Amino acid sequence: MNKTFDLDLAPYEAEELDKEATIPIINGLSDLYHPIQILADFLTLQEHYGSLSGLTVSWIGDGNNVLHSFMMTAAKLGVHLKIATPKGYEPERSVIQEAQRLSKEHGTQLVLTSDPMEAAHSSNVLVTDTWVSMGQEEEKKKRLKDFKGYQITMQNLNGVTHKTQQ
Q1: With the C-alpha atoms ordered 129, 39, 59, 154, is the resulting torsion angle positive or negative?
Q2: φ/ψ (deg, to 5) at 80
């Protein structure tokens, strides 16, 4: 298993390693993706709801590696995804383009907005992540200011749609 930070590999180097290796390479975490986290998150949702197909998940927060992994996975599982990020903290453009393609291919909805309440409305699940990731400690003060309002609160919980377990 490749934990990029331990091996000091850039994402493209991990992909190259995967092409050349004679054994499976698992990207546990990189600056661009966090696939193991998403496997755990979707497994939890599967256990809770019984089915993922048709669920609407809303992400409120940073356009980071965890979000990128949600974006690459949701449509393939039949999950609609609504994303609210502050301006300047949007997901990577290439990830957005691929997620849009996957959403179209799988018939799911992908919504990008800067309004957390819009993203939360009629969703089944609200998700967020830390605003200050490893290596961003020097940006903490600015990020705390920029992310004000991008929290999961009772106010945006009121817009959630409750889906019963199957």
Answers
A1: negative
A2: -80, 145
Question: What is the spatial distance between Cα 58 and Cα 52, in angstroms, rounded to a whole number?
Answer: 14
Q: Which two tokens stand for residue 99?
A: 């997620």
| pTM higher than 0.85 | no
The secondary element (H helix, E strand) that includes residue 65 is helix 65-73
Residue 84: closest CA among 125, 55, 54, 118: 118
What are 18-34's pLDDT values in tens digits? 788 888 877 788 888 89
pLDDT band at 42 (very low <50, low <70, confident <90, very high): very high
Question: Which run of H or of E encompasses 3?
Answer: strand 2-3
